[in-house]
Amino acid sequence: MKLTDSIEMLGGVGPKRAALFARLSVLTIEDLLHFYPRDYIDLSRPYEIASAPFGEYCAVKATVYAKTGPVRAKSGKKLFKVSAGDDTAALTLTFFNSPYAAGKLIENSQYLFYGKVGGSLLSREMASPQIFSLGISTSFMPVYHETAGLNSKYIAKCVQRAFEALDGAIPDPIPEKLRAAYRLPEKALCLRMLHFPASMREVQAARRRMCYEELLTLQLGLSLLRSQTRRESGAIFAKAEPQHFFASLPFVPTRAQKRAVGELCADFQSGLPMNRLLQGDVGSGKTLVAAAGMVMAAQNGYQSVLMAPTEILARQHASTLGVMLAPLHISVALLTGSVKGKARAELLQSVKSGEAQVLVGTHAVIGEQVQFQKLGFAVTDEQHRFGVRQRSLLFEKGQSPHLLVMSATPIPRTLALLMYGDLDISILDELPPGRTPVKTYAVDTEKRARMYRFLADRLHEGRQAYIVCPLIEENENTPEGLQPVTEYLEQVAKPLLPGISIALLHGRMKPAEKNEVMSRFVRGEVQVLCSTTVIEVGVDVPNATVMIIENAERYGLSALHQLRGRVGRGQHQSYCILVSDHTAPETKDRLRFLCHTADGFEVAKYDLENRGPGDFFGSRQHGLPALKIASLEQDGRILYTAQQDAHNLLTADPRLDTQPALKAAVEKLFAGSFSLN
Ligand code: ADP
Ligand code: MG
Predict the structure, then answer these.
(1) What pLDDT sits at residue 384?
(2) How far is C-alpha 226 from the chain's CA centre?
(3) Whose CA is nearest to atom 25 of ligand 1?
């Protein structure tokens, strides 16, 4: 069997299982070997029952005494009970609806049980434990990200079989010299150590090596991409005069905005295509900077495009830009997936003819049928939502257009440089005047009634509010204590806010429904928007002054800060209330930190230093290829080393011709973004 073979070549994996593996992005044997465990079950030192920690996952060694069941539990499920124990205490094992698990246990035999010990000191219980026979060969069982129908045990079995069936070596992309210099073990060995380690030290050693390989590959790919887009010369905007535009605005631009626009002007006249990141905290007024760029493009006969990650945001940008650019007679068109038929054909025609000077839209704007007459300036908003691939497609829509990527996720400068290389950076470090900082509070659910009374008061004063819940609806995998938004709306929000108009908004609604709800909220007909995090990016409703975030512990601080940025946009005092019942000190510290900090850069720094859930470099946030093992915030030192090594490798061999395995790894990581041939 070869690495490139389909997963279906493994014995026991048919089309059905292969489809399940595909959900985990595992298509080939190689993908499977690179599908790393997310954790390990430590069976190496099982606890005695009496000393097993309460409420934590652990392994115990126990003898099965007797089995009873099934009985019907209150929920209607069938309940099987097994009494077990060791010299120190008794333990009752319970299994729901799984006669199989309980059935195969043999009385008077010993097993390892892995689960959470609960019950009381006198009668200890373990619900639905995993069962291992004592003869098990490895003492650390891999735990994988699972999907319905594929559990960790099964995945481990497949990985085991893949190792056995594989003929030929696993190529090692890291050049010999570097491997020797850093004393990195061989790749094949590391993969084995990651899946079936004999100790946690093996895991660490193997992890370090695989991280380095991944980050080296990432850095090489980024450098290569950049050298592809940097070669051409950019459009020159001979006339770049924003003053006229500034004078037409209803307010005075901030100094930071003027400085950023000045930086754009310089790029526009440099003869090289601009490649600039505009960073600014939520509400710092990035849209105005983009608009100024569009004005300058139009002055020189060029078109502009702005790509936004969601339809809601695209619409909002189209309407803001429409208003901003109307006095200068610059036309703005909107293209999203919902523009269809004749309207779409007409719109595409006006883009092609150059009649539409500014096109705003979702990723529909990089669609194949979209042709510009003369595209000179391309903007992406909330750029971390887009991949490098989409950015380069946008670039290809014009003849080396100037590129501006806008992001409210403040990335510390050193890291931004590392991630984006020679992307230039403009920073809006100043908010428009007259904003009062958002008052932020962290509360637990005991205070909910009080919080709702406070909310009702604000609503009766005429303000509006957002309530954010983590999920759309409940399913069998929903961890306890999470609030699905649909249920929350009916059971909590509506009863507590009689007479208030509340609407639901979530990602699984059709775009047309979402737009309808959003427009009603913008018009003030809907007073409270009860939603998932779909409102996270960019929405601007100045009359909304309260943001309630349920299960706040679920989010990284940067994400919470983004959500908070939805309020505090008008003249009224705004409030952000973080609701969480988590009592862990780290969580409390994190939420408290946000209560006292308004500065997005400080928040990002805190996230960087104290990793929490939904860290802002989390795989889908940064627009880079998804990393399997390395973490950009935790493996900063390895990243730095990898960057230097990538630079040296490319200087010596710009197309990696002497390193076929490394070249293949780069192409695989950036699949579809470019080819080195
Ligand atoms: P963000 O950087 O989060 O994208 P926006 O561009 O949406 O911020 O701007 C936030 C709000 O601030 C908008 O309502 C915008 O009209 C307003 N705004 C932008 N610049 C200024 C300014 N210089 N003075 C006053 N208000 C401004
Ligand atoms: Mg914005």
Answers:
(1) 59
(2) 23
(3) 432
Query: Is pLDDT at 675 greater than 80 in this prediction?
Result: no
pLDDT band at 618 (very low <50, low <70, confident <90, very high): very low
Considering only residues 561 and 533, tell me which one the structure prediction assigns the higher pLDDT: 561
Q: With a 6 A CB cut-off, is 568 part of the ligand 1 pocket?
A: no
Q: In which band, very low, low, confident or very high, does the pLDDT at 356 lie, cut at 50, 70 and 90?
A: very high
Q: Best mutation site among 251, 315, 316, 385 for ligand 1, i.e. most ligand atoms within 8 A of its Cβ? A: 251
State the CB neighbour count (10 A cutoff) for residue 642.
24
The pTM assigned to this predicted structure is 0.64
pLDDT band of residue 616 (cuts 50, 70, 90) is very low
Mean pLDDT of the chain: 87
d(CA 532, CA 553): 15
Residue of minimum CA distance from atom 15 in ligand 1: 285
Closest protein CA for atom 4 of ligand 1: 286
Query: Is the CB of residue 251 below 6 angstroms from any atom belonging to ligand 1?
Result: yes
Atom 5 of ligand 1, nearest CA residue: 285
Nearest ligand 1 atom to alpha carbon 251: 24
347-353 mean pLDDT: 96
For ligand 1, the distance from its centroid to the CA atom of residue 435, given in whole angstroms, is: 11
User: 257 C-alpha to center of ligand 1: Å?
Assistant: 10
Angle at 674 between CA 672 and CA 675, to 5 degrees: 105
pLDDT digits (tens, 9 = 90+) for 213-260: 999 998 898 888 767 655 566 788 988 889 999 999 999 999 999 999
Q: Which of 246, 282, 284, when mutated, tests ligand 1's pocket best, judged by the most ligand atoms within 8 Å of its CB? A: 284
Is the beta carbon of 570 within 6 A of some atom in ligand 1? no
State what percent of residues in the chain have pLDDT above 70.
89
Measured by CA distance, the residue closest to atom 17 of ligand 1 is 285
Q: Which two tokens stand for residue 279?
A: 């960073």
Q: What is the mean pLDDT of residues 555-578?
A: 89
| SS3 readout for 501-559 | CEEEECCCCCHHHHHHHHHHHHCCCCCEEEECHHHHCCCCCCCEEEEEECCHHHCCHHH
CB of 280 within 6 A of ligand 1: the answer is: yes
- Non-local (6+) Cβ contacts of 223 within 8 A are 421, 646, 647, 650
Of the two residues 558 and 157, the one the predictor is more confident about is: 157
Which of ligand 1's atoms lies nearest the C-alpha of 287?
6
Return contacts of 20-29, CB within 8 angstroms, 24+ apart.
Answer: 20/147, 20/148, 20/149, 20/150, 21/150, 23/147, 24/145, 24/147, 24/150, 28/3, 28/4, 29/1, 29/2, 29/3, 29/4, 29/5, 29/162, 29/166
